[in-house]
Amino acid sequence: MMHAPSNKRTAAENGDGGIDVVLMRSLGNGEDLGPIVRYAFECGKPEALLHQLRNVVKKKEVEIEELCKLHYDEFILAVDELRGVLVDAYDLKSSLSSENLRLQEVASALLLKLDALLELYLIKKNVTEAIQTLKVCVQVSKLCLACNMHVANNRFYPALKILDLIEKDYLQNTPLKALRKVIDKQIPAIKLHIEKQVCSEFNDWLLHIRSIAKEIGQLAIGQAASARQGDEEKRAHQREAEEQSRSGVNPVYALDSEHIDEDTVLEFDLAPLYRSHHIHTCLGIQEKFCEYYYNNRLMQLNLDLQISSAQPFLESHQPFFAQIAGFFIVEDRVLRTSKGLLSESQVESLWDSAMSKMKSVVEDQFSHTNTANHLLLIKDFVTLFGATLSRHGFQVTPLLEVLDNSRDKYHELLLSECRKQIGDILTSDTFEQMVIKKEYEYNMNVVSFHLQSSDTVPAFPFIAPFSSSVPDACRVVRSFIEDSVSYLSYGGHINFHDVLKKYLDKLMIDVLNEALLSMIHTGNLGVSQAMQIAANIAVLERTCDLFLWQAAQLCSVPLHLVERPHAGLTAKAVFKASQNAAYNALLNVVDSKLDEYLALMSSINWTADEAPEHANDYIHEIVIYLDLLISTAQQILPLDALYKVGVGALHHISDSIVATFLSESLKRFNLNAIIGIDNDLKMLEAFADERFQSTGLSDFKRDCSFRDCLVESRQLVNLLLSNQPDDFMDPVIREKAYGALDYKKVATICEKLKDSPDRPRRSTENKKMSSCSFVYVIWKWDQETICLLQQAST
């Protein structure tokens, strides 16, 4: 009893209190002690278990002693049983020791194998970890190798995708710090290398796209020119159909499939640009690249807008505008196909800058261009340039306005060239009727200008009513219309027919008509030349409607608008006035020639002793000349002009005869001279009647015939030869028989007809007694009667 606490403390101090408690609980519960024994041996502390068992035994002995005191008898019995148990315990102990020894012998070998196994497990774990590390490193290495290969082969996008994959999925999970550090350091270097390579390729593309921009622009402008030509061919077919419809022929409409073609897509490579843009986007520097692209393209545009002073603009304008067209076609394609690279505002800014420069260039070059054809060539190409870029959505109106502002200068230059051409044409023309020997000449010079009188092809050689200057001038006018339409069309104005009509009038009036008038007024023209000029003007007057119709056709104006009243050219009325001026010039030439023959009247013996039996010599010359004049006029001039020439010539002869009687150089004349003049008039009247009939003028029922043009001289001669000169004082008879005579002229002439009374009687030998009475009466008239005549004339 005294030793029990100390044993407990000893057990507790030895750290075996836990086992003691467990052992006691197991024994108390009657549980199997096998696990506890096995645990003790596994832990290598069987002595402790044995010690605990002893303690348990001691405790139980103490308890037994106590119980024995209470239950002595029972205790004695229990002691006996206990001793038996003790013997069994000792047997068990011996058995356990032996088993332990055998177990130790067996377990030592197993423990060695267990240690080896644990070491192998550790090695396996390390090897597995190493394999996993190597797998990650191998994958990273493979990705790095693939990235290097892509970079080496300029496949930058997959290289960037690999770099992005390494950064996101592998870099932080790479177990090797050294490898992770190397990769982390190389990724920015690779990206920088890719950026430099892409920029280098992009710069090469910039140079390439600028080098082919001119070709792109030329191709696009060529397509616009083809489209314009197709439109013009359609309008030509439409005009032909209208003309056939006007002529009564049913127009045939056909669809020419060869001209139906879609616009060819302009092919140029933007892949390097897209690639660069995409790579920079992947690098996260898209804005930097967009700014770089815009600035470089702006610099290229500024270079393209520079004009070389070493080359004339006429030669350089096509490459200049083709280069700009190509530039903006590329920019339009970039704007529509590359998202985010360009903005509409940036393209508009580029276009505004280019438009301002192009306007100043065109204005400056037009101001220094002094040839209409050069202006037209430049204008045509500029309008094609405008049509090309308007298809791509660019506003070209300001440039077209510059062209419209230059149209006056163009037409002034064109008029100046036409003035020179027409001047050369008129100078080289002999003003003889044009002889056409072949049908193609007839078609070229007559039919093409609608100058034929009928649709029937005449026999050749054909003598045209005009000279060679008429078709040549018509060709100049037609060329002017075509050139004017070429300049005015495709500009800022849709309906330019009125503008063309104004310039056409200016050509016909200020150039052609003025040249003809200058030829009329300043040229030393013969009669046939003056006639031909008058005939030419009449033909040109008729061509005004043709030229207006051609202008309307080229302007696509409906013909019924042209055919309205007061819709014609002003030049038509001007040509009519010029025609009258030509007729007056012709009459002046004729009068001058007649004056040369009438001057022969000075050789007449005005106081002849005998009356002549035949006409005077001068009248023969006049009749021969008039016959040639009328014959020539009949071949050249229309009947109304022929009538004017004949009437004017005969009027001039009649006036000249009367003027001869009034001339101060003629102091006096007698009856015999008057009889000679009467013979002259009869011969002239016979010629006038014959010509009036033979020329067909009598069919037109003119109020005044050729004979009527001689009425004043005839009435004067009739009065001087009249048996009853007093009838002149009778108003009724005077109005009927002497209405063309003037009182004052008659009085002046009567003063010169003074002769002795016996002169008439001597003339009876020539059987002129009926005519002598007037002389006698006039001789009887006193001065008072002559004064009455003079008062009546006043």
What can you see in these coordinates?
By secondary structure, the protein is mainly alpha-helical. Helices cover 75% and strands 1% of the residues. It has 29 helices and two strands. It has a two-stranded antiparallel sheet with strand order 1-2. Helix 3 (34-42) packs antiparallel against helix 4 (46-70), helix 5 (72-152) packs antiparallel against helix 6 and helix 6 runs antiparallel to helix 7 (177-246). The protein is rod-shaped.
Shape: rod-shaped
Estimated structural class: mainly alpha
Low-confidence stretches: 1-16, 251-263, 755-785
Based on CA atoms alone, the radius of gyration comes out at: 67 Å
What is the helix fraction of residues, given as a range? over 70%
Number of helices: 29
Main beta sheet strand tally, sense and closure = 2 strands, antiparallel
Q: Please give the alpha-carbon distance between the first and last residues.
A: 202 Å
Estimate the strand proportion: under 5%
Instruction: Give the overall pLDDT as a whole number.
Output: 82
Write the SSE topology.
Layout: H1 4-13, H2 17-29, H3 34-42, H4 46-70, H5 72-152, H6 156-170, H7 177-246, H8 271-282, H9 286-304, H10 313-337, H11 344-368, H12 372-391, H13 397-405, H14 407-428, E1 435-436, H15 439-445, E2 462-463, H16 469-488, H17 497-522, H18 527-554, H19 559-562, H20 570-598, H21 617-636, H22 639-662, H23 671-694, H24 711-720, H25 731-737, H26 743-752, H27 758-762, H28 769-780, H29 783-793
Which key features would you list for this structure?
75% helix, Exocyst complex component, rod-shaped, mainly alpha, 794 residues, exocytosis, transport
